[in-house]
Amino acid sequence: MKVLFVTSEAYPFAVSGGLGDVAGALPAALRKRFVGCRVVMPLYEDISQELREQMTFIGSISVPVAWRRQYCGIFEAKYNGVTYYLLDNQYYFKRAGLYGYYDDAERFAFLARAALEILPTVDYYPDVIHCNDWQTALLPVYHSLIYAHKPGYENIKTLLTIHNIQYQGKYGYEVLEDVFGIPSYAHSLLDYDGCANILKGGIETAHAVNTVSPTYATEIMDPWYSYGLDSILKERSYKLSGIINGIDVEVYNPETDKVIPATFTVDDRSGKAKNKAALQEQMGLPVRSDVPLVGLVSRLVSQKGLDLVKYAMEGLLKQDVQFVVLGSGDWTYESYFDEMAARYPEKFAVKIGFVPSLARQIYAGSDLFLMPSKFEPCGLAQLIALRYGTLPIVRETGGLKDTIVDCGEADGYGFTFKTYNGDDMADAVHRALALYQDQDAWQAAVTRAMQQDNSWNSSAGEYIKLYKKLLEA
To answer: For the structural domain made of 2-246+457-472, what CATH number should be given?
Structure first.
């Protein structure tokens, strides 16, 4: 079986979020399961010179973008044994950052069309083209309208993964012909709610659609979560499924991690206590082994449930507890956490910004990890926390519901709450603090947390099943 993974970002070349982590890990996991997988992505300006020096130029083609034809240079690189094709067009990609430009519609229309056009040049005709989010959702549209009956393309199946339905690629109707080159008879494929919606076009034309957790696949058919796409997803529910993401267990490995002050194992966790003391000292908190330390690493935006945190924090700080927060985002949350740190210096510490090494130290040194999201397609932070023996406190939504079992159950290794309510979140925190006082029960839960298999191996197996189902259809 051969798969072409098309993405707007991928580790280690260019990453802005979870999609980049997935695109860096899933193809390698598929390859270990004897599935041929290659990756296509843009050659961004931000890609380091060190990585560029490892690339090989293998040719160039001319790509149609509506009435234009645009140059496309093809560079090949290897990462974790996987072949990556990085597509060069300086007009589209020689800029700082990945997204947020006025012509993103045209930039990613080029990516989608180029990913199909390069197949003869690289001599790789996949069985499945796996697209990701709105930036590549035009690829199934182009395949359906233009390529499906061409030699070499006729048996290709397309899969579209929705990593976050909030981002859909909405534009005015003028882009349909002038930018995308979609003929008038096919405008209805992208027409939705008064605009041209790229993600909707991908949902309509892809042979299968999935998202990054089973619960999120159900949730996005509900108006509360769907950002307007619930009706089309209900109509296409027969081709919708959910597969939970994994994490790279070699990168996030407490036994070998060189970023944290002390390594540790599930059987010898003395190093975890050293990480806690080091984190407390670094963040200016009293170094105490007996106080539960709660970590929060997040974008500081409302999606992450920070309104609940603001509502409950004053009450929680009346307990014998410490909080460490790392993140950046909305000014209202940044200033609030700065205020808490100033008012409660013995109990609350914050670092505004994102420091990857500090994030790792918070995962390793905290006792608890707070993640009360309003919605969470999958979530990786709770999986990383488990890996480091830090028990998550999460709302039962999306991937958080699918990956965390409450300690109220015999096999629990975290704390959950259902409704988007500050009192319910506070209750989950209080239950966690109470369990911490029973160290035998606590350590048993930590053992169960560290024994969870959240590697890409099992997730890759589920994707292989989905690919096979597509090919058998």
So the answer is: 3.40.50.2000
